[in-house]
Amino acid sequence: MSRNNGMDRRQMLKLAGLSAAGLGLTAAGCGSGSGSGGPVTIRHSWWGADDRAKKIQSCVGLFEKKHPKIKVKTDFQQYPDFWKKFNTQAAGGNPPDVIQNAVTFLRKYEAKNVLLDLAPQAEKGNLDLGGFRSGLEKFAEIDGKLLGVPVGSNSMALVIDEKVYEKAGIAPEIGWTWDDWYAGLRKIRSGQNVAGDAGPHGVMYLYDLILRQNGKAFFTEDALGFGEAELLPYWTEALERVKAGLYADPNKVEQIKPASATAKGLSAGEFTWDNFSVRYSAEGRSSYGLAPIPSTDGRKTGQYLGSLMLSGTARTKHPAEVATFISFMTHDPEVARIMGYDRGVPATTAQFEAYEPSDAPSKAIAAYETAIADAGVLEPITPHPAGADVIEAAFLRISADLSLGKTSPKDSVKQFFSEAKTALASN
Amino acid sequence: MTHIHTSPGALATGGDRSAAKRNGPGGIAPPVPPKRRDSGENLAGYLFMSPWIAGFLFLVAGPMVFSLYLSFTEYNLFEAPRWIGLQNFTDMFADPRWRQSVKVTSWYVLIGTPVKLAAALAVAMLLAQKRWGQSFYRAAFYAPSLIGASVSAAIVWRALFSDDAIVDRTQKVFGVEVGGWIGDPSMIIYALIALTVWQFGAPMVIFLAGLKQVPRELYEAAEVDGAGPWRRFFHITLPMISPVLFFNVLLETIHSFQIFGSAYIVSNGSCGPADATLVYTCYLYEQGFVNSRMGFASAMGWLLLLAVGLVTAVLFWSQKRWVHYEEGGR
Amino acid sequence: MSLLAAAVRRRGPGALAWHLGALVILGVVLYPVVWTIGASFKPSAEIIGALDLFPADPIGDNYTRLTEGIADIPISTFFLNSTYIAVGSVIGVVLSCSLTAYAFAKVRFAGRNVMFAIMIGTLLLPYHVLIIPQYVLFQKLELINTFTPLLIGKYLATDAFFVFLMVQFMRGLPKELDEAARLDGCGHLRTYWSIVMPLCRPALVTSAIFTFINAWNDFMGPLLYLNEPDKYTVSMGLKMFIDQDAVADYGGMIAMSLVALLPVLAFFVAFQRYLIDGMATSGLKG
């Protein structure tokens, strides 16, 4: 019995030792002391994929070299997971210090006092607000607070599989209409037995453009800018097109997630942000290009410059360092050369001029943004109300349910407006 | 968190007749009837019990009361809870996604648990025969119960059931063109059910232990009387192992209600497609942590507690009719 | 097969059917595991579509990929975190549950019956009702993004199942032993530590292993409570892999899945007697 006892104790000791070792390691791992002189650690989270991760890592390395007293820890997730996690973190009281941000989330987190007002930091000289292209520095100004700094501008576009489009003899140009686009889909289907589009009816930002083409918008200041009368015909038509094979097989699209349907050859094109097109050639086998957004009247596309931003969070213990980092990421020419157009066309002139695109996708993005700017189709952006993110997710999910044949267009529309109402009320 | 992911293995291996017996018709009996009490014993008892008492008060009872309060409020973690009465509950009943989550979970429990237990019992009866290699098979069949709840298993499942993978190809051999189950809202739930059935080893081990206790003489006597294998099964095996069966049904059912991780990972975090894997916990998580509706999520939690309580009560009540205890009881 | 043949010769055709049946089940049960092993040596593009279990030219790329880590975090970080939580949980459960079980089994104190009934009640309690309020509690205590929420319950004997298991076991111990100890003047603490604990070893080991495996596999706890990747457990590391590399690096993800299972499988191989045999029989004694 005494031997048993000894065994137990020895095992216990071993376990205790192990856990002590673990404790030591963890303690060493998260030493983010902010005493004077010691290095300060800030945390930067963003959404994206592996290719962006490598670029951001190089930028962070560069930053740390120039600012030896600031360490930056980074992490990233897919877009929806990123926001799930961020919401939990913000509510839990320890969000990352710096986040990648988008216009949809500004009001939501401003209302909850999650975001850091960067204006005081600009006054103190920690954040440089000079040299932004076409007034972009005002992009995230809400009620006199500066809630984010744009890193690059982007715009909605149609990414196309050039080989399929070429074979079908379709050459999209600025000024083409939805009818032209639809004719193209049918041609591609009959000629090459491929779906022409991944299914645009779940993309909130595209529907926003369609509504704008017709004098409305997805959001007003605090509500939805459209009703069942608009959405029902849109989704009814979409379901017919899914059934006709003009939009990609939703079952397959579901399974290859998070990969893109067009990159995986399930469709000849899809609507997305122009800067995303950088990913396609890495993921897919064909060659990919950017086509303009079709319009209703041959002129007005409803487009605006969107932008990814960097925002600080209000609870950060190191606002000055946060501002320094954001300033570096938006102005340093070397950062522009590393990032390219990954997060859109650089927002500051210094970075815009520092990067000369050499690869085809980036050249295409530059050409695309220049073309739509020259065409004069750009409009000012409308701010999104709090709850817009939940509505965007619902729009995407319900449209997928519709495509998969789980609900009728009528029920889908009803469901969407009911969820939107809840989201606007509770956020 | 301590209640999260107790693997069926963990719960089930303690499953035994004594457990069922203890919870039997006589109600829950204390381990030893108390005879003598004195203040020294009381003090010692409370000292030994102090971690449990603290845990119960601060991690179970207190949170339950708090959650009951929250279920009548609107609370987003950022601002103070606001009393809204029964609104969360009326919203819930009017919410088609909530109804969908009830449907998905019920389906999962109603199909998954019986199939899993049937598989467990069938294999246990096979293994109950003393043969060479018996203990090896028992160990091998048990292994999935330990790894089935992991993220790894869910990742592998997603791969095996996707388009053009093994399951899809096998179907095609039989001329069934379904495509991958993962993208098909009517099929993906069966991929999840397959994942839980794959873990039949834990209840199997308990059935085996129960089967070993059945006296051989009963079978021999029945054979002399000319009873065939089916009659022997229904008239000897089933009644004799009914306490074990009861225990397995109880634990597997309660456990199945709590599925989250595998649904979340197999559906790539969407609990889709088309909400086809929107199990109750997934929806509670989404409403609470993604949409910041902590009050609504609390109300969901309480409603499930009531539902599971009801199912448990019905099971306990029904056991009078079909669970046979060797001694005592009735 | 010759063993099979020998078995058939000895035991007759019933044995053949038995072994065939068992082998078929074995094939179905082990297929996913064997598939994973094979797939981890295949190039990413071939993993889903290829029907061969093992590739003609196995490659080690998927494993070398793991040494690069995920998002600049070495894989070893996830394993250390998981080990820390799992070992910490084991110590907590073994100590706190055995103390509670001792009180239930060996001490006669007022209110024991009521507490025992409550403890059994928590065994059947669905955790849904606790997710939100516990989260709010730990948020108010500013314990989010620490390991405390994942560990504290283990030190406060909230794992009713293990308490129950140990009570069962302690009741099975010969009464004469602790009565003799009491006569020799041992207090409860001495009796608990020097007599009951050593004798309970099988129950303690079983509880320890299950606690380790549950903590290792836990997904929801870390998902809710851990925010920074360098605190992530293996489950969350795998989740990161899905998020970030599902497109580019299917092979790496499968390899990581397998590596994540290794500790569990190792415990199983080492302790399967304890897990299956010991438990099934020790339970029946009660």
UniProtKB/TrEMBL annotation, chain A:
Under SUPFAM superfamilies, the record lists: Periplasmic binding protein-like II (SSF53850)
What is the name attached to this protein's record? Answer: ABC transporter substrate-binding protein
From TrEMBL, chain B:
**What SUPFAM superfamilies does the record tag this protein with?**
MetI-like
- This protein's major location comes to membrane
UniProt keywords, alphabetically: Cell membrane, Membrane, Transmembrane, Transmembrane helix, Transport
Localization, UniProt? Cell membrane
Q: Does the keyword Transmembrane helix apply?
A: yes
Instruction: Give the way it sits in the membrane.
Output: Multi-pass membrane protein
- Region feature (Disordered): 1-36
Q: Which residues form the ABC transmembrane type-1 domain?
A: 102-315
Q: Which residues cross the membrane?
A: 43-72, 107-128, 140-160, 187-211, 232-251, 294-317
Keyword presence, Repeat? no
Q: Provide the family line.
A: Belongs to the binding-protein-dependent transport system permease family.
The protein here is known as Carbohydrate ABC transporter permease
The organism of origin for this protein: Streptomyces mutomycini
TrEMBL record, chain C:
Residues annotated as domain ABC transmembrane type-1: 79-271
Q: Does the keyword RNA-binding apply?
A: no
Q: Specify the domain of life of the species encoding this protein.
A: Bacteria
User: Where is this gene product found?
Assistant: Cell membrane
The record describes its membrane topology as: Multi-pass membrane protein
List all membrane-crossing ranges. 12-34, 84-104, 116-138, 150-170, 191-216, 250-271
- Which UniProt keywords are given for this protein, alphabetically ordered? Cell membrane, Membrane, Transmembrane, Transmembrane helix, Transport
Q: Which Pfam families does this UniProt record tie to the protein? A: BPD_transp_1
Similarity section: Belongs to the binding-protein-dependent transport system permease family.
Q: What is this protein called?
A: Carbohydrate ABC transporter permease
